[in-house]
Automatic annotation (TrEMBL):
<feature type="transmembrane region" description="Helical">
    <location>
        <begin position="21"/>
        <end position="43"/>
    </location>
</feature>
<dbReference type="Pfam" id="PF05975">
    <property type="entry name" value="EcsB"/>
</dbReference>
<keyword id="KW-1133">Transmembrane helix</keyword>
<keyword id="KW-0472">Membrane</keyword>
<feature type="transmembrane region" description="Helical">
    <location>
        <begin position="285"/>
        <end position="306"/>
    </location>
</feature>
<dbReference type="InterPro" id="IPR010288">
    <property type="entry name" value="EcsB_ABC"/>
</dbReference>
<keyword id="KW-0812">Transmembrane</keyword>
<protein>
    <submittedName>
        <fullName>ABC transporter permease</fullName>
    </submittedName>
</protein>
<feature type="transmembrane region" description="Helical">
    <location>
        <begin position="55"/>
        <end position="75"/>
    </location>
</feature>
<feature type="transmembrane region" description="Helical">
    <location>
        <begin position="103"/>
        <end position="123"/>
    </location>
</feature>
<feature type="transmembrane region" description="Helical">
    <location>
        <begin position="376"/>
        <end position="395"/>
    </location>
</feature>
<feature type="transmembrane region" description="Helical">
    <location>
        <begin position="169"/>
        <end position="197"/>
    </location>
</feature>
<feature type="transmembrane region" description="Helical">
    <location>
        <begin position="350"/>
        <end position="370"/>
    </location>
</feature>
<feature type="transmembrane region" description="Helical">
    <location>
        <begin position="135"/>
        <end position="157"/>
    </location>
</feature>
<feature type="transmembrane region" description="Helical">
    <location>
        <begin position="312"/>
        <end position="329"/>
    </location>
</feature>
Length: 403
């Protein structure tokens, strides 16, 4: 079972490495660096305004730390076929799950280090906690996360969903008590309570697992759900074959489609808009990037950084929509339409230009709240120039081989 886990883990890392080349592109990394720099600048200015401990600092940290425990799930890497081929090895599968639990603890631990390091200046200024207390908080969070992973492992063996929900509520209640003791009393007290809770859990687990039967469908469903969340994140940057698009009626969008009906020259315009509005893959991708970009611009204090990020997000959305041009290539009936290929390219350009214009308008509305009129006008002009360059210059060159 250890060899099977290592094999699955190598395959998983290989797959994630392939997708990482499309996620961590040059433009995305530039946007991340600019965003981190802007947040650090705003964070530094915020710390300069704090001259005494804040009453809401510890309650805020308590809520944040409890929320951080939701980062990371048990990664079992199970597949649908395992319900048949691994069934004879069910008893030996516990070794596989223990290796998966240890692996699943690494990512949350790294995330805890980053967050505690970022919160260290705020903790030193806004609370009476010593900087060394962050080390104790890290131990508390790792211990609690370890216990949560054990409960997620047990959930694969429990056939009573109601009991699983009760355990989940009880865990967050205990976690809140342990973290509160760490913040208001001492991190050492929190470590002691976490160790006691972990010890009690370890006493319960062997007796439960000795007679428990693996719920194969539940275990595979939980892993598929975890991977689906990961694929949706990757799908923000590139196509993911594991995500199958769905079609929704969306009758409330029919008035938009009627604008293209009955016009021979707008045949492909109607097809592209119809597929975009009723599909889930590209519409979801567009909306997610639109919301993420708007939220980031809302928190950027410097207008020129916001302008640069807005242009980058326009490029990201346009770049991710390029594969949408090929959506009808495998439909033989489309090739029989008495419509020239140039009409297809122009229709696609008009669709993307309209979507980018909507995105630019929403970004401009966000910037209108926090920018002066002159800076806002510069932002609008630059965003419009970026949209025109993308749709009038860049896209025709990318689509040229299709002519």
């Amino acid at each position: 079972m250890k060899q099977l886990w290592q094999q699955r883990l190598r395959q998983h890392h290989k797959q994630m490495l392939k997708y990482s080349r499309y996620v961590f592109t040059e433009f995305f990394m530039i946007a991340i660096f600019i965003f981190v720099g802007a947040v650090a600048y705003s964070y530094s200015n915020l710390l300069d305004t704090i001259h005494a401990p804040l009453w809401w600092a510890k309650p805020g940290l308590l809520i944040l730390f409890v929320a951080l425990l939701s980062v990371g799930r048990l990664a079992t890497l199970l597949q649908d076929a395992d319900t048949l081929f691994l069934l004879p090895k069910e008893r030996a599968l516990l070794t596989y799950f223990l290796a998966a639990r240890r692996y699943s603890l690494w990512l949350p631990s790294l995330f805890f280090v980053i967050m505690l390091g970022a919160l260290l200046p705020f903790q030193a200024v806004a609370t009476n906690l010593a900087p060394s207390g962050s080390l104790g908080l890290f131990v508390v969070l790792v211990a609690l996360k370890d216990g949560q992973l054990w409960l997620q492992l047990v959930a694969n063996y429990d056939d009573q969903p109601q009991r699983i929900r009760q355990w989940r509520v009880l865990f967050y209640l205990v976690a809140a008590i342990v973290i509160a003791a760490s913040l208001w009393i001492s991190p050492l007290v929190g470590i002691g309570l976490a160790v006691v809770a972990e010890f009690g859990l370890r006493l319960y687990l062997p007796r439960f697992l000795a007679s428990a039967v693996l719920q194969w469908r539940t275990a595979v469903k939980n892993e598929n759900s975890r991977m689906l969340q990961l694929y949706r994140l990757i799908n923000l940057f590139t196509d993911v074959p594991q995500l199958s698009g769905k079609v929704h009626r969306r009758a409330y969008l029919d008035p938009v489609l009627r604008l293209f009906k009955g016009n021979h020259q707008r045949t492909f315009g109607y097809l592209y808009l119809h597929e975009f509005l009723r599909g889930t893959e590209y519409l979801g991708l567009y909306l997610r990037l639109l919301v993420i970009g708007a939220v980031i611009l809302w928190f950027i204090p410097l207008w020129w950084i916001a302008t640069l990020l807005g242009a980058i997000f326009l490029y990201l959305v346009g770049f991710q929509l390029l594969p949408f041009y090929q959506i009808f290539n495998e439909n033989l009936l489309v090739h029989l339409y008495p419509v020239p290929l140039t009409n297809k390219i122009q229709s696609f350009q008009h669709l993307v230009q309209g979507l980018l214009m909507i995105q630019a308008v929403i970004f401009a509305l966000v910037m209108l709240v926090s920018s002066s009129l002159s800076h806002w006008l510069i932002f609008v002009v630059i965003e419009l120039v970026v949209v025109l360059l993308l749709t009038r210059v860049y896209f025709p060159r990318r689509l040229q081989p299709e002519k």
